[in-house]
């Protein structure tokens, strides 16, 4: 059965909801386990069906052996007997309501049961009709305010605001940066940070959560709810508040006094799996963790110690500070115990960008760039790069003869040579090309044209549905060409649009390491490809990586930070990234196939 990750995640959340409806106290640990597993699946970049086929489901953090066995049963038989047993007494009409903001399992179950709503296809419309007719307010235990809240939540849901709607990282980051900048204008805001999956730089983000260190929470909260681009205030308390933006995205704010801010920042940044593991470690030391600090029994009393920074919080546990991107419970706590957390690659380490599409009239097989080469060169100089590579798509093979393609590339080389002479004091320019790997594994242009290039990035742009064996053979054949140095956007995924194509990654990693080929981490917002889990596997195998922006305009070159974020989530250091090398060493690698 080929269920997608979102479908599996929703199934697990439905099981957790069923447990909560039956007996929230009795099934507390089951509820936590299923929610934790669903969170892990939401954040992973790899399709579970691919992990299942490769017998690697055990590599997925946050999913215990029992739930993993259920997922295996799901793929094998198309159903899970245990899930059917848990769900059988719960009306199917409950579960569509759980997609609506503010609807929990008990609330949904009560509405369905007390108003006899049995059709899952119409249940949301049925609840809307009941609320508009005033029937819910008249029912004991609801009231007028509850009824209005239900109508408001359904309206937001109808506009696309659901619990599972996720933003790609760059969009969420841009949204958060605007809010953070606004909050910093408040004199009472001493520190402002995003939280959760956004601070961990996951590829997709749910709602945006922000923390503020302040001695005057009232002033900060009042400033926050006055944000000019909100549509309404969802709630405001003594320490927290939530608003809805005109984009229909929810922003949650929480405050903490500066002396305890490090504890809050740690608590609401780490994934659930990371925090659970950290709490278990603390308990083994006789300590108790919370968003307020660390408790320790002294003289029979619980004494709370607060921490103003995350570093102080982790150090109090005798742990090395763990970068947010690593906090997914995939071995980082064990490294922190040993004081062996790696020094992850940083944006400032990047020395060049090798995947730039200019507006040069190369008459490509795919989309052209928007800006002239000189504009992109000026941007690279502003970014303090030592080198760049123009890698437009190869000229269309269906519209040009081999000799015409050669002439186009020869003329482009003349243009690049002129620019080399003009900018030689500032940076080095490579004549690269992004070349299609055709379904049979051949590169789209012939060897005579390829010889005009300093090197080629090769990539798949068609026939994505080939089986694993055929696709792997295709990719490795294309990558084996002597001019092919980098496999661009290696999985072909488009976030929220297209899943990865099927490759045998162990075979790909072994080939790249043996032949000194590099895999690209493509920083384009809808790609973020290679995904972080595969980055980590590549790093473990010793495969070389390149972080590129795949820019089609000079402004896109700022996407580099998102590629670096993916690399950091994959535990990559500066030594793992080829284009962190200074020019002379990078040039040796490109020309001589040596690191």
TrEMBL record:
Going by the entry's taxonomy, the superkingdom of the source organism is recorded as Bacteria
**Pfam families from the UniProt entry:** DNA_pol_B_thumb, HHH_8
What are the DNA-directed DNA polymerase X domain coordinates in residue numbering?
3-328
Q: What Enzyme Commission number does this protein have?
A: 2.7.7.7
The cross-references to SUPFAM superfamilies, in alphabetical order and at most eight, read: DNA polymerase beta, N-terminal domain-like, Nucleotidyltransferase, PHP domain-like
- Spans traversing the lipid bilayer: none
Ranges in a coiled coil:
399-429
What catalytic reaction does the record list?
DNA(n) + a 2'-deoxyribonucleoside 5'-triphosphate = DNA(n+1) + diphosphate
Query: Gene3D superfamilies given for it?
Result: 5' to 3' exonuclease, C-terminal subdomain, Beta Polymerase, domain 2, DNA polymerase beta, N-terminal domain-like, DNA polymerase, thumb domain, Metal-dependent hydrolases
Leading EC class: transferase
Keyword Lyase assigned:
no
Keyword terms: Coiled coil, DNA damage, DNA repair, DNA-directed DNA polymerase, Exonuclease, Hydrolase, Nuclease, Nucleotidyltransferase, Transferase
One Gene Ontology term of the molecular function aspect: exonuclease activity
From the Swiss-Prot or TrEMBL record, give the protein name: DNA-directed DNA polymerase
> Per the UniProt entry, what species is this protein from, by scientific name?
Dictyobacter formicarum
């Amino acid at each position: 059965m080929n269920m997608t990750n979102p479908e599996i995640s929703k199934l697990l959340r439905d099981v957790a909801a069923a447990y909560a409806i039956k007996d929230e106290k009795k099934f507390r640990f089951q509820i936590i386990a299923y929610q934790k597993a669903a969170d892990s699946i939401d954040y992973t970049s790899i399709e579970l069906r691919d992990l299942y086929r490769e017998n690697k489901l055990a590599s997925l953090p946050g999913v215990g052996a029992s739930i993993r066995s259920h997922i295996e049963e799901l793929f094998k038989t198309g159903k899970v007997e245990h899930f059917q047993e848990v769900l059988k007494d719960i009306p199917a009409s409950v579960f569509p309501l759980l997609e609506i903001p503010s609807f929990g399992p008990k609330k949904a179950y009560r509405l369905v049961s007390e108003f006899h709503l049995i059709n899952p296809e119409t249940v949301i419309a049925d609840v809307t009709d009941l609320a508009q007719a005033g029937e819910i307010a008249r029912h004991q235990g609801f009231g007028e305010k509850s009824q209005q809240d239900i109508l408001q939540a359904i309206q937001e849901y109808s506009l696309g605001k659901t619990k599972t709607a996720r933003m790609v990282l760059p969009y969420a980051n841009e949204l958060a940066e605007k809010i953070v900048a606004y909050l910093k204008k408040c004199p009472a805001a001493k520190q402002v940070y995003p939280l959760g999956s956004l601070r961990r730089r996951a590829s997709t983000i749910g709602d945006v959560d922000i923390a503020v260190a302040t001695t005057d929470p009232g002033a900060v909260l009042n400033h926050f709810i006055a944000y000019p681009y909100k549509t309404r205030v969802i709630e405001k308390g003594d320490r927290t508040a939530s608003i809805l933006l005109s984009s229909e995205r929810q922003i949650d704010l929480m405050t903490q006094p500066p002396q305890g801010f490090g504890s809050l920042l740690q608590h609401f940044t780490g994934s659930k799996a990371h925090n659970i593991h950290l709490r278990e470690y603390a308990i083994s030391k006789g300590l108790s963790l919370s968003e307020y600090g660390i408790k320790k029994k002294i003289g029979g009393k619980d004494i709370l110690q607060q921490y103003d920074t995350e570093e102080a919080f982790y150090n109090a546990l005798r742990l090395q500070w763990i970068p947010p991107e690593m906090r997914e419970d995939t071995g980082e706590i064990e490294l922190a115990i040993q004081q062996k957390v790696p020094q992850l690659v940083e944006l400032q380490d990047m020395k060049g960008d090798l995947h730039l599409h200019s507006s040069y009239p190369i008459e490509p097989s795919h989309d052209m760039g928007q800006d002239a080469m000189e504009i992109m060169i000026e941007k690279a100089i502003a970014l303090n790069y030592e080198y760049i590579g123009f890698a437009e798509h190869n000229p269309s093979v269906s519209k040009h003869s081999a000799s015409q393609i050669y002439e186009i590339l020869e003329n482009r080389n003349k243009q690049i040579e002129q620019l080399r002479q003009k900018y030689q004091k500032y940076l080095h320019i490579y004549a690269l090309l992004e070349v299609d790997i055709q379904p049979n594994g051949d590169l789209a242009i012939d060897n005579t044209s390829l010889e005009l290039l300093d090197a080629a990035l090769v990539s798949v742009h068609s026939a994505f549905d080939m089986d694993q064996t055929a696709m792997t053979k295709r990719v490795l054949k294309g990558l084996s060409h002597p001019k092919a140095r980098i496999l661009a956007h290696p999985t072909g995924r488009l976030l929220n649009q297209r899943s990865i194509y099927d490759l045998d990654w162990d075979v790909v990693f072994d080939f790249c390491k043996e032949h000194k080929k590099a895999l690209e981490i493509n920083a384009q917002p809808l790609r973020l490809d290679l995904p972080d889990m595969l980055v980590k596997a590549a790093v473990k195998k010793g495969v070389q990586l390149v972080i590129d922006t795949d820019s089609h305009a000079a402004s896109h070159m700022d996407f580099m930070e998102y590629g670096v974020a993916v690399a950091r989530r994959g535990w990559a250091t500066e030594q793992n990234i080829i284009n962190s090398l200074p020019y002379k060493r990078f040039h040796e690698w490109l020309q001589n196939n040596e690191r």
